[in-house]
């Protein structure tokens, strides 16, 4: 492939991964981090009972947010990996005859797999991380074998 065609394929790939990422965030927004209470920002070691209660409340809210964010990343990783697999199948079966577009879609699907892997790494679930990485490895090995 010539340099302009390679650049077009790379542009298509980057646009595909951006499309997937922005599409997921548009239709499945991330949970919002709880606001930090202003009265706790300058607290010293001699905290009152009320400040201690507020700190405990803030800590509970932060822990709940971390759990929600981990679950959110698990869902985003699953969607990304699923879409990447569909894009890979589509690029191998139907678009492979169009060199620049086929290469761009294939590369975009691979980038989307990596995006899903990054999201899987952010979760707090070791088993999910392993399964996500295993799926991606099998998909990429199949891609190289059939491609």
Question: Can you put this structure into words, describing what you see?
Answer:
- By secondary structure, the protein is mainly α.
- It is built from four helices and no strands.
- It has helices at residues 3-27, 49-93, 99-122, 126-146.
- 23% of the residues are buried.
> Based on CA inertia axes, which overall geometry fits?
elongated
Q: List the total number of helices.
A: 4
Taking all Cα atoms into account, the compactness measure Rg is 21 Å
- How far apart lie the N and C ends? 16 Å
N-to-C order of helices and strands: HHHH
pLDDT below 50 for ≥5 consecutive residues: which ranges? none
Number of strands: 0
Beta-strand content estimate: under 5%
Structural class: mainly alpha
Mean pLDDT: 88
Largest sheet: none
Helix share, percent: over 70%
Please summarize what this structure is.
This protein is mostly helical and 147 residues long.
Labels describing this entry:
elongated; single chain; 78% helix; 147 residues; mainly alpha
């Amino acid at each position: 492939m010539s340099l302009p065609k390679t650049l077009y394929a790379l542009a298509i790939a980057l646009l595909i991964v951006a499309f997937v990422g922005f599409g997921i965030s548009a239709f499945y927004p991330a949970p919002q981090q709880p606001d930090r209470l202003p009265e706790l920002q300058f607290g010293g070691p001699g905290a009152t009972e009320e400040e201690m209660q507020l700190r405990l409340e803030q800590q509970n809210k932060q822990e709940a947010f971390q759990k929600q964010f981990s679950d959110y990343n698990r869902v985003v990783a699953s969607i990304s990996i699923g879409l990447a697999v569909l894009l890979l199948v589509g690029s191998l079966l139907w678009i492979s005859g169009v060199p620049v577009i086929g290469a761009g879609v294939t590369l975009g699907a691979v980038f989307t797999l990596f995006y899903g892997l990054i999201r899987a790494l952010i979760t707090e679930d070791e088993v999910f991380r392993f399964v996500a990485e295993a799926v991606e490895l099998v998909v990429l090995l199949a891609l190289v074998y059939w491609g």
